């Protein structure tokens, strides 16, 4: 009897412990948005990744969750989710805010399956290419981006693809875990639990507590409504507010819109940005921003942060009517090709840099009427290549691009690292080592021009047939390595960089790199680019060559052509895109 009483007491104590003990808090929440290409079975990938992240004590939400949850679907349209999956950062932030996710993982997945025979046994090999970017949901900053390949094998195509997808899951989960705060730290943090309660039941701060208030963003010229403009400010937490203004342009011919507004805050403003581009305030807190418009819905996210670290966001959505436009209208390509073979200082002369620029421009111009409705190329060679000319063409010519257009920049020639300043310079026609400070194109100036350009254009592709080797040698081209340029431009979304070689290597040219008997020669990098665009980079045998396919082809061919002396570098800040149309 006594024994039974003791047992009951123990059971009662255990029940009390489990009922009232605090539940372990889950870690950071991540929104997973995956888009598949070329028949890859992406429907299996999000659940696999969710399971992996849950096992690591993270929370995960998928695009299906956004659609099926009635509460979430009422805040998001199908177009919002589709745009987010395609890499639209403001839309991804909007989706993340709806499901209270701290991070967003956007991935584009492409699969290529081929038969192979191993010791007389018929097998299948799957190569899955994944381009991803991991985004901080509050700031919109891209904290990680890359394009990788994963291989798997099996007795059936499905088994091979499943094996490769397992590797994709491990890789993406590992990236997320590295970039997000640890699950254990999140679970132990009382602030995380309090923030969740505030999101569920927002409470206004005391009027006297100015430091607890987020800045107020006022859009002074909302776009014309036609009955659909609405201004909405929704409190998410005491230190974070979000607003939305919607409207339609009056005329389909309007390609630009000036966003005007005012930011008010009692503690002072630290920064104001529109789509991550810094905006200057006047003494009264007013701002003005000229924005390019494309047909359809254009989203501009105004972000203000005060000196207390409190943030506000206001989304300006401007719809440009598509009357008279055909569905699936092709984009326009705006190109700039620069190549210097003949220098004022003849000792620096190269053989094929000018021909590389001309040949590459001609190859891409053939896409007019195919993948692109129009192709507009400016080509600067030899004496026309000056510092001012390059920067002027980036602004005046490439600046004509609309958000949905594609910009392509190619640069070939010498470069140098200034010994005393440590800065890298592209060497125009009229410059040399002695005049590089006054006449050279400093790469930081080039980087800044590209950053500004990328704020108004969704896709910018840069190919550089130069690299830094510490000296300028005839037969090789020297400038900063591709890794450095990619790092400097990492904040730009939709940016693709292909550099001829990594830091410390030279970019080689030779007469043996020629397309036909009439050709005189090329740089190894440009030769591989043009050869890949001719169809050799079409790994999956479909109707087009994507940027990833083209860059992978160049990365494989150049080391072979140069006997391992040159290794191209590739960095993608956006999802893969078709670049060369082979079949219509």
Write a structural description.
The structure is a single chain. With 584 residues, the protein is an alpha/beta fold. 30% of the residues lie in helices and 32% in strands. The protein folds into three domains: 29-188, Rossmann fold, CATH 3.40.50; 213-320, Immunoglobulins (Immunoglobulin-like, Sandwich); 332-581, Rossmann fold (3-Layer(aba) Sandwich). The strands form seven sheets. It has a six-stranded mixed β-sheet with strand order 7-8-14-13-10-11, covered by helices on one side. A six-stranded mixed β-sheet has the order 16-15-17-21-23-27, sandwiched between helices. A five-stranded mixed β-sheet has the order 2-1-3-4-5. Helix 10 (353-365) links the parallel strand 15 and strand 16. Helix 10 (353-365) runs parallel beside helix 15. The longest helix has 23 residues, at 157-179. The radius of gyration is 27 Å and the shape is globular. The model is unreliable at 14-26, 183-208, 225-242, 248-253, 322-327 and 467-493 (pLDDT under 50).
Please identify, by name, the CATH architecture of the largest domain: 3-Layer(aba) Sandwich
Mean pLDDT: 74
Q: Mind telling me the C-alpha Rg?
A: 27 Å
CATH class descriptor name of the largest domain: Alpha Beta
According to CATH, the fold-level topology of the largest domain is Rossmann fold
Structural class designation: alpha/beta
Number of helices: 16
Count of distinct structural domains? 3
Could you give the order of strands across the largest sheet? 7-8-14-13-10-11
């Amino acid at each position: 009897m006594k024994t039974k009483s003791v047992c009951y007491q123990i059971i009662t104590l255990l029940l009390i412990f489990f009922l009232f003990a605090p539940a372990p808090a889950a870690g950071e929440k991540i929104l997973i948005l995956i888009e598949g290409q070329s028949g890859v079975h992406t429907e299996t990938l999000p659940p696999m990744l969710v399971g992996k992240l849950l096992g690591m004590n993270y929370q995960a939400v998928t695009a299906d969750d956004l659609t099926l949850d009635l509460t979430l679907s009422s805040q998001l349209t199908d177009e919002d989710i589709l745009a987010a999956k395609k890499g639209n950062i403001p839309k991804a932030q909007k989706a993340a805010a709806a499901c209270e996710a701290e991070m967003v993982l956007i991935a584009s997945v492409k699969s290529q399956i081929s038969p192979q025979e191993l010791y007389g046994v018929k097998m299948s090999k799957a190569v899955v290419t994944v381009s991803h970017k991991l985004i901080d949901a509050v700031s919109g900053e891209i904290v990680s981006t890359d394009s990788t390949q994963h291989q798997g094998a099996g007795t059936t195509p499905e088994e091979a693809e499943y094996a490769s997808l397992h590797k994709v899951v491990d890789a993406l989960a590992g990236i997320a875990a590295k970039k997000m705060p640890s699950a254990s730290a999140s679970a132990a943090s009382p602030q995380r639990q309090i923030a969740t309660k505030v999101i569920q039941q927002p409470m206004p701060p005391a009027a006297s507590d100015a430091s607890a208030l987020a800045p107020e963003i006022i859009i002074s010229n909302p776009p014309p409504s036609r009955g659909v403009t609405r201004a909405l400010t929704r409190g998410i937490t005491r230190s974070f507010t979000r607003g939305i203004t919607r409207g339609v342009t009056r005329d389909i011919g309007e390609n630009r819109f000036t966003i005007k507004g005012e930011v008010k805050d009692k503690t002072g403003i630290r920064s104001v940005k529109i789509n991550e581009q810094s905006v200057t305030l006047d003494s009264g807190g007013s701002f003005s921003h000229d924005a390019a418009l494309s047909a359809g819905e254009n989203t501009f996210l105004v972000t203000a942060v005060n000196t207390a670290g409190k943030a506000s966001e206001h989304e300006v959505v401007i719809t440009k009517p598509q009357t008279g436009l055909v569905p699936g209208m092709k984009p326009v390509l705006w190109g700039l090709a620069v190549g210097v073979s003949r220098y004022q200082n003849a000792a620096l002369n190269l053989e094929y840099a000018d021909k590389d620029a001309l040949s590459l421009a001609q190859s891409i111009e053939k896409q007019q009427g195919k993948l692109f409705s129009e192709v507009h190329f400016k080509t600067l060679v030899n004496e026309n290549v000056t510092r001012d000319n390059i920067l002027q063409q980036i602004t005046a010519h490439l600046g004509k691009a609309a958000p949905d257009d594609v910009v392509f920049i190619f640069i070939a020639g010498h470069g140098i690292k200034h010994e005393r300043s440590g800065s890298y310079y592209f060497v125009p026609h009229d410059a040399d080592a002695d005049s590089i400070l006054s006449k050279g194109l400093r790469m930081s100036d080039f980087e800044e021009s590209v950053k500004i350009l990328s704020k108004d254009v969704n896709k910018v592709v840069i190919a550089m047939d130069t690299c830094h080797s510490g000296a300028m040698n005839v037969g090789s081209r020297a400038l900063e390595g591709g890794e450095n340029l990619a790092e400097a431009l990492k904040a730009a979304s939709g940016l693709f960089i292909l550099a001829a070689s990594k830091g410390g290597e030279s970019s080689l040219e030779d007469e043996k790199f020629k397309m036909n008997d009439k050709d005189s020669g090329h740089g190894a990098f440009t030769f591989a680019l043009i050869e890949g665009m001719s169809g050799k980079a079409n790994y999956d045998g479909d109707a087009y060559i994507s940027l990833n396919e083209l860059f992978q082809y160049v990365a494989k061919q150049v080391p072979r052509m140069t006997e391992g002396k040159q290794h191209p570098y590739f960095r993608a800040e956006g999802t893969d895109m078709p670049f060369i149309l082979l079949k219509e």
